[in-house]
Amino acid sequence: MAVFTPVSIADAEAFLAGYDIGEVVELTAIAEGVENTNYRLDTTRGQFVLTLFEGRTDEASLPFCLGLTAHLAARGFPCPTPIEDRSGAWLGRLNGRAAAVIEWKTGAWLRTPSSADQAAAGAVLARLHLTAADFDLERANPVGPAMWRRLVDRCVEGEGRASDADRALLRQVQATLARLGDPFTTDLPGGAIHADYFPDNVLFEDGAVSAVIDFYFGCTGAFAYDLAIALSAWGFDAEGRAMPDALAAFQGGYESVRPLNGAEREALPRLGEAAALRFTVTRLHDRIFHDPANLVTPKDPAVFLRRMDHWRATEPA
Q1: Residue 89 burial by CB count (10 A; 0-12/13-18/19+): exposed, middle or buried?
Q2: Which of 43, 64, 94, 283 fits as disulfide partner to 22, beta carbons 3.0 to 4.6 Å?
């Protein structure tokens, strides 16, 4: 989460006049993440998240993203419910941005999850895949290979803004992109996926997962790719080094609910490298084109580039 578009109390009050959620008590910027503008919204009727959609979040995709969370929540999956306004709509406009109000979920993300926490998070990801099986909307991956290439091309055009370290990373990304090509195949089980299942999008409370949040990269894709993203997020240390126990615990938790088939197991290293490339590219782009006026800190792309070595080493010959 982050803040790109400022919202005043008066702005929020005018927007929330269309909702039946009480009067604004407090509006607090949430300065984590890198994609959308988020505020914690306290009203006389409860706590919510006010989100303004920025950057890579295409407004046309929001019915899928919000519909998926509503679908999952209605079936008892731990995720926030989008709040309808008085006309029954999930979306409005605020300060020139598409905006929505989402249920606030309690809990906190874990900086140092234990093996049991890893397994629990893996099991919940598998539950997500199974619970969304009858969700009938589709969305193409907004950050797939075509977008990787566009972002890399823009980084090349903006090399004059890049540091020496970023230019070195860019050369490695270009080489990996050329070698990997399009790593996705159509023969793997799939459906609606989260596509951003990082620890800061999984809240824990009392030793259990209390909520999965931030479905705005959600799309239609291979379940094994969603697992590869999650393993790349949960199974490596802050420097990008693999943690075998964490990787095993997370995947074990996932497969305790939804076992992988043979094709998925074979594809997992390739998809892991694709996941590492995806986050390296977007983080590198965001760091090169960072606007210091935004209340957000770009994340280090190098730590994801290092994950590629692990995934390449585990790929079948």
Answers
A1: exposed
A2: 43
